[in-house]
Amino acid sequence: MKGRGCWESASVRSFCSSGCLNKFKKDDSGDEDDETASPADKSELHSTIKSLSLKLDDLSTCNDLIAKHGAALQRSLSELDSLKIPYESSEKLKVVNERATLFRITSNAMINACKDFLELAETHSRKWQRALQYEQEQRIHLEETIEQLAKQHNSLERAFRSAPGRATNPTKSFSEGSLLTPKGEDSEEDEDTEYFDAMEDSTSFITVITEAKEDRKAEGGTTGSVDWTSSDNVLDGASLVPKGPPKVKRRVRIPDKPNYSLNLWSIMKNCIGRELSKIPMPVNFNEPLSMLQRLTEDLEYHHLLDKAVHCTSSVEQMCLVAAFSVSSYSTTVHRIAKPFNPMLGETFELDRLDDMGLRSLCEQVSHHPPSAAHYVFSKHGWSLWQEITISSKFRGKYLSIMPLGAIHLEFQASGNHYVWRKSTSTVHNIIVGKLWIDQTGDIEIVNHKTKDRCQLKFLPYSYFSKEVARKVTGVVSDSQGKAHYVLSGSWDEQMECAKIVQSSPSSPGSDGKQKTVYQTLPAKLLWKKYPLPENAENMYYFSELALTLNEHEEGVAPTDSRLRPDQRLMEKGHWDEANTEKQRLEEKQRVSRRRRLEACSRGCGTEEEKEADVYVPLWFEKRLDPLTGETACMYKGGYWEAKERQDWHMCPNIF
């Protein structure tokens, strides 16, 4: 009996360790992980079942041979048993006969077990085939839909290019502007404009350039200054930046972006309608900068604010502030990659008093919802602070990114305090076509000391629009509502301002509405975008400042974004290692969050409220903003003193 048991165990082990069974188990365990199956997977499954069937046929053949030879063996044993042999030999023949019988029974049992196994495999095979067929049909339907969208896209593009009324003169962009896009054939879809906070009381306007020192008195018109005055001279050369030799040599390039292919739709299709900050994404969708560094990048054209310090006129100063607010979008035109979501407590400093004349500090003060606090001090006489919460939604064909929170800018000498909010960013062609980004909506900048206002309109791009792409228009008016300057340009190239010398209403249009006609002096250039560095297309389209933001620096806090390992690995081109490190950091943050929530003994409401109640930012504190009436995190001091002492004992271990 011992021999039979050994033979049976060995046979079962041999069969279970065969390549076919291992392959079968692999297909079974991997079915839940793969959301879609290719025809190759289906063919492989058929091949596996076929191999199992062949194995079963072999076993059946072996069973027949065993039965045949077993019967012959038993006949031989029976013949020996009928012979006159000693008693001891007769007992041995009986034992051999019993073992032969057990051997045949075991063989039959093994064949029956193999048949049951094959039947079970065939049953599951039919279920898998139905699932694979459904996935294949869904994929074919999606491919047909995408192909149809691509054809419609190309058809619309050809129709636009061949349209007879298409504008051909880009310089015409300054002659007519609008602070409110009229709803009609040329407007974006309602679905696209859902998030744009349009100002209902804004009026359309037309600008007419006139020569200086000309008699502009007209009936029913309002006459202003007849020429640029000496107080306007600060606007001359506002776009020019004195470039001296840098005191610290900064890097001018980073490793080229690796060419990794990734199916965007396979990941994004499960994100429709969800908050993207709560969806784990591989680094393939990122750029090697954190959101804190992207906020700091808004300071690239800080010289506009340095110029604004010397303005004696508040409306003139407003022009430079408006140009600064628009310039922060200039780097986004090619930057479709997502910055890293900062870890809770992560910081980023920019200590550039020597060359930029400013110090900047950002801290991630909340994780759900993601919120970052930012404070900037300039030695030229201004300071800027903000708390920005990023809200993003994926809507299938486009991605909307909505920064929430007010930006404050204060000039110490004059006491002028400006407040504005960012516009909506939209990433188009998520499903098909080349990704491109657009800035849309309205920005209202208010000087809370003088009550001056600037209303900026970011016009959404449309194939059928006669306007130039990425156009921005605006009007600067005083506390009495009188318009002083007209602003125009594009958020990715430049901004100009023209002084208004006369305004009058135009004749009613076909829709019965009147536009305000502004007669202006020739425009002056306020801001012009810096050219991108050489080879920028292979370096994530980083600007000159962006290339230096993740450069290693000594003496920074241990929570600084420059020390984040997954971001550093991605910058070096090690994306697989970066993904592994990113998962480790996210799991570490989840564990820390659970511990904080468990430590909260008070009966808070939601988990976000509990977390907000437990977590206290290190360098910022919540205060009531008297101008906006909102509670926001403001800098409480102590960071630069801690850096000078190199005392970082209070910093958490987040990396």
Shape category: elongated
Report helical residue fraction.
25-40%
- Distance between termini? 63 Å
- Specify the structural class: alpha+beta
Low-confidence stretches are: 1-37, 167-176, 178-203, 214-226
Number of helices: 13
Measured on Cα atoms, how large is the radius of gyration?
37 Å
Average pLDDT, all residues: 77
InterPro entries: OSBP_sf, Oxysterol-bd, Oxysterol-bd_CS
Subcellular location: Membrane
Protein name: Oxysterol-binding protein
Membrane topology: Peripheral membrane protein
Describe the structure.
The protein has helices at residues 2-16, 19-30, 39-82, 87-161, 264-268, 291-297, 303-308, 314-327, 544-549, 565-571, 575-599, 607-614, 639-645; strands at residues 176-177, 205-209, 222-223, 286-290, 338-340, 347-352, 358-366, 371-378, 382-394, 398-404, 406-411, 417-421, 424-428, 436-447, 453-458, 471-477, 483-490, 494-505, 516-520, 524-528, 620-624, 631-635. It is an alpha+beta fold. α10 (565-571) runs antiparallel to α11 (575-599) and α11 (575-599) crosses α12 (607-614). This is Oxysterol-binding protein. InterPro entries: OSBP_sf, Oxysterol-bd, Oxysterol-bd_CS. GO terms for molecular function: cholesterol binding.
What's the SSE blueprint?
Elements: H1 2-16, H2 19-30, H3 39-82, H4 87-161, E1 176-177, E2 205-209, E3 222-223, H5 264-268, E4 286-290, H6 291-297, H7 303-308, H8 314-327, E5 338-340, E6 347-352, E7 358-366, E8 371-378, E9 382-394, E10 398-404, E11 406-411, E12 417-421, E13 424-428, E14 436-447, E15 453-458, E16 471-477, E17 483-490, E18 494-505, E19 516-520, E20 524-528, H9 544-549, H10 565-571, H11 575-599, H12 607-614, E21 620-624, E22 631-635, H13 639-645
Parallel strand pairs: 2-19, 4-5
Antiparallel strand pairs: 1-2, 3-18, 6-7, 7-8, 8-9, 9-10, 9-11, 10-13, 11-12, 12-14, 13-14, 14-15, 15-16, 16-17, 17-18, 18-19, 18-20, 21-22
Helix pairs in contact: 2-3, 3-4, 10-11, 11-12
